[in-house]
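Checklist before submission:
- one chain only
- standard amino acids only
- sequence pasted in full

Submission:
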Amino acid sequence: MNKQELIDAIAADTDATKTAVGRFLDSFIENVQGSVAKGDQVTLTGFGTFKRADVAARTGRNPTTGQTMSLPATVKPRFVPGAIFKAKVKG
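Returned file contents:
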């Protein structure tokens, strides 16, 4: 499912216009990204948690040459699915 298909599905479920749902979804994405970028975590009970994760510096290996290389510390976004989401996916 892509973004437009998600907008269509939400609009059909809620009887809202596709334009309104699109604005809502854009705002949701922007707010989650902004909060996680600041270091906050966004928790949607039953769905999951979006958070910022620090990754320590480490030694890696170049897959083509086999040469070791140093990988710097970085920050990555993480999503941890909630219990209800995990159960639904599991079946």
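Reviewer check: The longest strand covers residues 48-55.
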